[in-house]
Amino acid sequence: MSDETLTADPPAESASHRGSGGGGLDRATMFRWGVRLVIAILVLTPPFYFEPSWLRVGQYVMIGAVGAIGLTLLTGQAGQLSLAHPFFMFVGGTTYCVLGSEDAPGRVGFGLPSLLALFGAIAVTAALGLAFAPVSSRVRGVYLGVATLALVYVALYLGQQWSSLSGGTARGRPSPDLNLFGLHTLKAEPEITIFGTEFQREHRVYLVFALILLIAYLLAQGAVRGRPGRAWRAIRDSESAASALGVNVKRVRAEVFAISSAYAGLAGVMTVMWYRLLKPDESEFAGTYSIVVAIAFLAMILIGGLGSVGGAIAGAALVFGLPGMLTLTIGGSEMFGTSGAHAITPTIFTAFVYGAAIILVVLFEPGGLAALGRRLKMTFARTQLGSTLLSPKGS
Amino acid sequence: METFIQVVVNGLGKGAVYALLALGFVIIFKASGVLNFAHGSFVLLGGYVAFRTQEDLGFVLSAILGVATAGLGALFIERVLVARRPLADPIALALLTIGVDVILTEEIIRRIGLDIPFLGSPYDGKPVHVGEVTFFRTHLIALAVGAVLVTLFFLAFRYTGWGVAMRAQAENREAAALMGIRRGRVTGTAWVIAGVLAGVAVLFLATQDFSGSGLSRSTHAIALVAFPAAIIGGLDSTGGAILGGAIVGLTEALSAQYISFEFSKVAVYIVMLAVLIVAPSGIFGTRERTRV
Asked: What is the top-level taxon of the source organism (chain B) (predicted)?
C-alpha cells in the first residue's frame, strides 16, 4: 500500500477535487502557495518597518506558536489531553541556562556553546516526556489532563527549591546569548545592516525565532502527513482498532508525549531568550510557567482547530499576541474608561476574548480557525475571481 | 502526639471541604460526562455574592444568597452551553468549561480588585482548646457541615426518585432515556447540586484559617486541589470523592507539618500520580474495558 493513498488532510483536497473538476487541484495548490507567500511577507518584513516593541510582540507569538504546535500534535492528533506544557517549558529554559552559561557563585553552569545548549534542552525535555510514560501510556482522557497538572506543581516546587539551577524566585538567572556561527542574537555584534536597517537585538531575535518556528512547523507538518501522524490519529480514534492494525499503542503514546514535550522545551528556551532571564514562578496560578499558561496553550490549539498545525499558529497569534498589541495601541492599564484597581487591562480583555472564542468554537465550529480557513479556500477556489487569478491555463 | 492529633483534625477539616468540591466534580461527571474546569469559578461566584451582600444582610443570609447564586450559575452554564452539545467529545466539553472559567474568573477577580475579603466572619480565627490541643474552629465547622451535606446527598442519592434516575443515567444514558428518564432534568439538578456544594465550600476556603488568604485568585487555585481528590477516588465514584477529599486533606496537612509548606502542594499531586500508576481510573473508578 503506498503512502499517498492514505495521506490525511482529506476534507480540503477531496472537496476541491469534487468542486471544480480538472482545474481544482491546481487552484487549491495555487491558493496554498499564495497563502504561503503572504505569510512569508508578513513574517519577514516587520524587522524593516516596525518598532522593536512590536517585534517583541511578534517574538512572543512565535514562542506560543512553537509550544502550541507541540500541544496540537499531542492533544489534537493523538487525543491526549495535557496541561504539562509549562513544566516542560520551565525544564527546557532551565536546561538551556545551565548548559549554556558559565559557572558562577551559587549557580551551576557548564559553559557549553549555546547552540549545543539549545539542542541539549530539547533532548532533556524529550527524555523527561518519555520518563512520564508510565503515566502517559496508561492514563486516559481527562484523567491524564489532571495527572499532567501535577507536573506544573513539580515545576513550581523545583524552581523554588533548586536555586543553584533555576537562579531562585527572587533573582532568576540571565539567559545565555544564542550564538549562531559567530552571529550573536542577544548582543548587536557583529553589526549588520540590511537595506538600510540596522539589525539590533530585537531584529535578530525576531529572525531567529522565525527560523525556529519554520523548522518546527515543517517537522510537525511532515509528521502529521506521514506515518507517525497516521499512527497518532489511529490511536486517537480507537486504540483497539489501531492495535489490531499493528500500531504499538503504548509506544506511540509515549513517543508523541516526548515529541510534544520537546516542542514545549524549545518554547521554554525561546521564553528565556525573550525575557533574557530565567525566573521561576512564585505561585501556581500566575506567572510564566503557571496553570494559566497551560490553559492558554489549550485555548490556542482549540481556537486554531484541534490537530491543525497552521491553526495552532493562528491560535497563538490571538492568545499570546493580543495583550501585547492592545498594550501598544491603547496603552498600559486603562481601557474603556476604567482605571485603577478594577481596570480592564489588555490581559483581562484578552482572557475575555479567548474564553469566548473557546466557547464559540466548541459550540459552533469544532474545527476552529483551521476549518474557517479551509472553507475560505474552497469558496475562493470556486469564485470567478479565484479562477481567473489562480488558474492561468483557464478552465 | 498533641500536634499529630491537631494536624489530623485540621487535615480532615480541609479534607471535608475538598470532598464537597470533589463531589461536585463527580456529580457533574456522572450526569453529563464533563470534567468541569469551571468549578473554581463557581466557587468564586458564590464567594463574590456572599461578600458583596455581607454588609447589608449579615453572614447567614449573605451566605445563603451566595450558595444559591453558585447553584443557579452552574445551572445556567449547563442549560445554555453544555446541554446544547450532548453528543460532543468529552475533551471538547472539558475545554468549553475552561472557556467559561477564564471569563468568569477574570471578571470576578477584576471586580474584587485589590481589597481581598475574608468570608468566614463568625468562626474564622477563633481557636478551640481541648485539653492540650488547639483546633481551628473553621476546620471543625467545615468537618461538621461537610458530614451533614454528604450524608444528605447520599440519602437523596439512595432513596429519592432523582437519585435513582441519576444512577440509571450514569449507568447507561441511552437506556435511561428509553426508560423515560428525563435527561435534562437529571443533569440540571446535578449541576445545581454541584454549584451549591461549591458555594458552601468557598465559605471555608476564603478564610484566614484555611488558606491564610481571602477571596482571590488563590481561592480559585485551591479549588483546583479538589481535582486530585476527585481523581484519586475515581471520577465516577461519589464515595471515592469523599475518600479522595480525606486523602488530599491529610496529605496536605501532614506534609506541611512534617516536611515543608512548599512541599505540601506538590505532595498532593505526587500521591495522585502514584495512585494513577497503580489504578489508572482512580481507586473506585470504573475501569475502561475494551472489547475486541
From this structure: Bacteria
Angle between the N-to-C axes of helices B226-233 and B238-258, in degrees from 0 to 180, rounded to the nearest 10 = 130
Query: Cβ separation of B81 and A359 shorter than 8 Å?
Result: yes
- C-beta neighbour count of B181 within 10 angstroms: 17
DSSP letter at A277 equals E
Burial B232-245 (b: 16+ CB within 10 A, else e): bbbbbbbebbbbbb
How much of chain B exceeds pLDDT 90, in percent? 43
Interface test mutation site (partner A, options B29, B111, B266, max chain A beta carbons within 10 A): B266
Contact between A149 and B273 using a beta-carbon 8 Å cutoff: no
Q: Can you say whether the dihedral through the CA atoms of B184, B187, B192, B195 is positive or negative?
A: negative
User: Which of chain B's residues have a Cβ under 8 Å away from the Cβ of A156?
Assistant: 265-266
Strand partners, B133: B130
- Chain A residues close to B277, C-beta within 8 Å: 134-135, 138
8 Å CB contact between B92 and A75: no
Domain ranges within chain A, ordered by starting residue: 48-283
On the 0-12 / 13-18 / 19+ scale of CB atoms within 10 A, A337 is exposed
**Which of 64-93 (B) contact A at CB < 8 A?**
81, 84-85, 88, 90-93
pTM: 0.88
Q: Does residue B69 have a pLDDT over 80?
A: yes
- Alpha-carbon distance of A327 to A307, in angstroms, equals 30
Is B99 at the interface with chain A, CB within 8 A? yes
B283 inside 8 A of chain A by CB: no
Residue-wise DSSP of A33-45: HHHHHHHHHHHHS
B274 touches chain A (CB under 8 A): no
Helices (H), A78-200: 85-100, 114-131, 133-136, 141-161, 163-166, 168-171
* B-chain residue closest to A301, CA distance: B95
Q: How far is CA A270 from CA A59, A212, A286, A290, in A?
A: 9, 9, 19, 17
**Using CA atoms, how far apart are residues B121 and B60, in angstroms rounded to an integer?**
10
pLDDT at A383: 63
B1 vs B205: CA distance, rounded Å: 27
Residue B17 near residue B7, CB atoms below 8 Å: no
A31 has pLDDT over 70: yes
d(CA B47, CA B41): 10
Mean pLDDT of A8-27: 47
pLDDT in the model for residue A8 = 42
Contact A55, A203 (CB under 8 A): yes
Measure Cα distances from B47 to A354, B13, B37, B119, B206 in Å: 24, 19, 17, 7, 8
Taking CA atoms, A108 is separated from A35, A97, A117, A166, A238, in Å, by 46, 9, 14, 9, 46
At residue B129, what are phi and psi to the nearest 5 degrees?
A: -105, 125
Q: Looking at chain A from residue 141 to 170, which residues have their Cβ under 8 Å from any Cβ of chain B? A: 141-143, 145-147, 149-150, 153-154, 156-157, 160-161
Query: Is the pLDDT higher at B286 or at B77?
Result: B77
More confident residue, A369 or A383: A369
Question: pLDDT grade, residue A4 (50/70/90)?
Answer: very low
Smallest Cβ distance to B85: which of A153, A161, A363? A363
Alpha helices in chain A (DSSP H): 3-6, 10-20, 24-44, 46-49, 52-71, 85-100, 114-131, 133-136, 141-161, 163-166, 168-171, 201-225, 227-237, 239-244, 249-275, 291-304, 309-329, 346-364, 368-382, 384-390
Could you state, in order of their start, the residue ranges of all structural domains in chain B?
2-278
